[in-house]
Amino acid sequence: MANKSKKHKQRIKERQREAWQAQKSQRKTVRHNTAVNQEKHRADWQTLQPNEFGVVADRRIMPRDELERRERVEMLSAQAIAADFDEAVWQRLAAATPYALGLVIEVSKGLCRVALDGEIIVCDWRGALIAEQTGYTNIIAVGDRVLVSLQEEGHGFVQEVLPRRSGLGRADPFYGHLRQLLTANVDQVLIVAAWREPHLWLQMVDEYLIGAERNNLTGIVCINKVDLAEEMAEVEALLRPYQAHNHPILYTSTVTGEGLAELTAVLRNKTTVLAGLSGVGKSTLINSIDTNLNLRTARISNMPSREGRHTTTQAVMYPLEHLNGYVIDTPGIKDMGLLGLDAEELLDYYPDIAEFVPECRFSNCQHEQEPGCAVRDAVENGRIAQWRYDNYIKLYARLAQAG
Q1: Is there a contact between 60 and 135 (Cβ–Cβ < 8 Å)?
Q2: pTM of the full predicted structure?
Q3: CATH number at residue 320
Q4: Residue 176: its pLDDT value, please?
Q5: Structural domain for 393, as ranges
Q6: Residue 151's closest CA among 162, 142, 159, 141?
Q7: How far is CA 318 from the centre of its chain?
Q8: Are 106 and 170 members of one domain?
């Protein structure tokens, strides 16, 4: 009798263990945003290419219980998305739902600000909202078009993130196969550097250009404070390597007004990410373009208090209403160009140097001390700018050490 009771208890324990294992397995499938699960089905993070419907992520970010319904909407909207991905596409997608269409202008931990029908509301997002198979570590980014259900006055819930036509991302510092999405639905990166005060740092400009190219965005170089230059010919001569490789260049000064008309034309009808070191004059430039805009407006720290302490946002979007465009101030993108880049891939972003590599004596030439290096010969002969070569060597050494 004792043996029978003992066997009965063992069967109960086995059933409990099986139930616990089943629950554990179910939890694992929900937690697909971890490094292990994302590795199984991620898209290559370095290529932010839209699919046949113009959608960047391989699946949209949405509550799991609405996945099938939204896939039907995708099918109905695919033709419009493929034809011309613009604001009208998001409006048509929103019209198929009971929710309102909003634009995310600022993000903090667990909260975001959304522009909706001329008002700015604070939104939380549903616990069921997940970064399903996107390859990103974050769910919502500045520039996202979202579907919002309104709650009490001035507050709402993000129910869904609509397809993205583009994005600016970088490798996650902890999970190299995943990306942090810094901004979504952007057109170009305006890289602002000062001729002086602070001194022009072309290595940083190179890094920003690499980041823009890795995200399939247009990188525009803006050299500000050119009123401090003794001769404009000196400025133009230094920047000639960029012009030779079709990087658009603007020369601006808020003191003399030089280049502001050209900058206005570049910003018109575009969503532009601002990049550059502190003090180069990004805010002053944009405020000169739109006198009603103030890039120093209150930030996300004014949001209603919640449990814990909110982190400062990495990006804030501002409208350029008379230009039908937006600018996004992004203090957190200085490492977007190199993070996750392999040292051997760096040459892809220096075509002026890569042109001479096949002529080197050794196939594994590092272009530093090796004899018969065609790259160094080209530098000495003035066919490669000295500063471009120096930047490449410094960045290569940094990537090789990190790898």
Answers
A1: no
A2: 0.75
A3: 3.40.50.300
A4: 64
A5: 343-402
A6: 159
A7: 16
A8: yes
Question: In sequence order, what are the beta bridge partners of 336?
Answer: none
Tokens of 228: 């401090």
In sequence order, which residues have a C-beta less than 8 Å from that of residue 402 and are 6 or more positions away?
A: none
Residue labelled with tokens 């952007």: 186
Q: What is the pLDDT of residue 172?
A: 72
Q: How far apart are alpha carbons 217 and 166 in whole angstroms?
A: 8
Handedness of CA 334, 340, 341, 343 (dihedral sign): positive
Lowest-confidence segment of 9-23, 145-159, 203-217 by average pLDDT? 9-23
Which residues have a Cβ under 8 Å from the Cβ of 329 and sit 6 or more positions away? 274, 282, 283, 295, 315, 316, 318
In angstroms, rounded to a whole number, what is the distance separating the alpha carbons of residues 165 and 162? 10
Look up the CATH number of the domain holding residue 396: 1.10.40.50
Angle formed at CA 38 by CA 33 and CA 39, multiple of 5 degrees: 155
**C-alpha Rg value of the chain to the nearest Å:** 25
Please state at what angle helix 67-83 crosses helix 87-95, rounded to 10 degrees: 150
Q: Which of 292, 285, 282 is nearest to 320 (CA)?
A: 292
The rounded distance, in Å, linking the Cα atoms of 334 and 201 is: 13
* 35, part of any domain: no
Strands 179-184 and 167-171: antiparallel
Q: What's the angle, vertex CA 310, arms to CA 305 and CA 315, rounded to 5?
A: 120
pLDDT in tens, 286-335: 999 988 877 653 343 444 433 333 333 468 999 998 999 999 988 767 67
pLDDT at 374 over 90: yes
- Asked if residue 154 lies in contact with residue 121, where contact means CB atoms within 8 angstroms, the answer is yes
Residue 361 identity (one-letter amino acid)? R
Return the closest-CA partner of residue 135 out of 31, 45, 36.
Answer: 45
Instruction: Identify whether 56 is part of a domain.
Output: no
Structure tokens at 88: 């009208």
In terms of domains, do 209 and 283 share one?
yes
Measure the CA–CA gap between 352 and 349, rounded to whole angstroms: 9
At which of 329, 364, 385 does a domain end? 329
Q: What is the DSSP letter of 187?
A: -
Give yes or no: residues 124 and 144 share one domain.
yes
What is the average pLDDT score of the chain? Answer: 78
Q: How far apart are the first and last CA of the chain?
A: 66
Strands 145-150 vs 129-130: parallel, antiparallel or unpaired: unpaired
